[in-house]
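User: quick one, fold this
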Amino acid sequence: MKMTNRTLKNLIVVLIIFLSGFNAMAQEETEPFLDDFRGTVSITNNGISLVPSFSLGDPALLFDLKFTKGKLSFEPDMRFGLDAKPWTFIFWFRYKAIENKHFSLRLGAHPALIFRTVNVVRDGQPEELLESRRYLAAEVAPTYKISDKVELGVYYLYGHGFDEGVKNTHYMALNSSFNNLYISEKLYFNISPQAYYLLSDDLKGFYIVGFFSLIKKDFPISVSAILNKAIDTEIVPEDDFTWNISLVYSFGGANRRKSKQKI
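Assistant:
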């Protein structure tokens, strides 16, 4: 096929028009569906539950994701043993009802599945089956910000179980957070001590717990630890002290909302 000068000129004009239109479209304002996405992957020597007095008792792999749109967020929390067996699946839906300079109020609810291995006999042979128990929970979390580094808050969680086991759980905590406590220009740590009351059906307990994180600025890997001590409790497990240490990889977190997008 031969190409004349006129045909070549026409192709060049069409190409210029196409590129100009594409460039104009690329520079238009874009409004992505999500405002933000972030998450962590953690490996720990002892998986500790949402209620810190309960633990897996074995090493665990934890996945925490957060999808944010406006004041709403969806936050899946999936935990596995290192043998790849699921431990807990929690699917948080959270809403920032109030958020200003000093005071914030978060409301949330989640369905959850808690898994355990049970031993059964089938056709005369012992066999392990994975059993799941269904829960539904809701939370209220007001927080008062004293400064950029210090926060005080109250936390209440109610959970209801639909299957065999605990039916009603009330978890009430007084918490505090001390953030961005610098060791050096690049290295800092966060501390969050809490005192909480736990009512599990008719059994109750009082506990203290501390959450610690050691973080390097602009580095995705951090180290965290949880130390939980029972003060007075009727609730099993009988071990009145649980702890863990975790290696945490963080990703995402950049604000997805951009006013312009250019080639």
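User: anything notable?
Assistant: The longest strand covers residues 125-145.
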